Fold:
Amino acid sequence: MRIVALIVGLLCLLTCLLDAFQTIVLPRRPRGRVRVTRIFYVLTWTPWSAITRRVPSKKVRETLYSIYGPGSLLALLGVWAALLLSGFALLYYALGSPFTDALLAHGSSPLGTDFYVSGTTLFTLGLGDVLPRSMKARELIVLETGMGLGVVALVIGYLPVVYQAFARREVAIALLDARAGSPPTASELLRRHSFAATGTHKDGVAALIVLLEEWERWSADLLESHISYPLLCYYRSQHDNQSWLSALVAVLDACALLICSVQDASARQAQLTFAMARHALVDLAQVFGQAPFQPSACPDRLAGGQFDSMCTLLGHAGVKLCTDQDARERFQLMRTKYEPHACALSAYLGMPLPPFIPAEGAKDSWQTAARMPRAGEVTHSGHAHPPDAHDH
Structure:
């Protein structure tokens, strides 16, 4: 029995340390199917998402989804602590429970004492009510104390890195709100950068190229950070109608349109952004083991003549389009390069894909915030609020 405890204890320690190293320290995609983190997310996300999908209220549903990301991180840290605690407790038991404990004289279990010593040592309490009787037990206590401090240091350094990556991701998504709508759509992104009303179409093309350059860099940052820390994919955006997946797919949609149908100078940058964004999308789908959907299984986001409606909308905005049959076929072929992977991630994460055309009467998130005072209205500070663009 002592030998079994020794083997199981060593396995607990090695499994925990290797998994924590791959998850926190290793700056690349973790390998191996039999990993604590992978098993943990499979066992927790599957029932959580299944229950959440059945919630009828969208607001409550999104709240439950948003809880999972940070909650799973804290729970994973608890799993690692439990493995370390159990591993050392079993090692103490394998040594014959070499401790002096007053409770043992009252019928307390030696294994219970081992777990108590392991817990107080790992969390560096040092109560001193249980004393080791052998040199090996003392060495293990010192080792566990140092390991406990190391785990605390790793967690302290790990959390800021995760939340900094999350903040970088969300800044770009928030900026996209005024540029592509809420949720972001490819047609709105191109329409708002046409600048047809002011007669400065060239300026609009230049602004669009700059935006695509920024999103090429954003996609690269998403690829690097979310493959190193896949749990960030479970973190939801601030608004219910926004997500990193919908933003990424909307940019891919816009790039596909620019490459296949739009006649301006932004096609080359669209190709570069498309390649980087698709790379991020495909790799993240592989991280979660999500095979691409068959094209027939993906919902058609341009069904019922919506392609013609989108072309009409963009044409009225001054966007020059190629609407012949060859352009349509090229556009459909481009969609098959990323939509199956996007559908797989959408079904797995519960994040809806964006439409190509905004819904009738849809408003941006910044427009649905608390109403700003009109020109001449007095604010709480007693000063008149200056007029904004919407007052004219």
Remarks:
- The chain has two domains: 2-133, 162-359.
- Residues 162-359 form one domain.
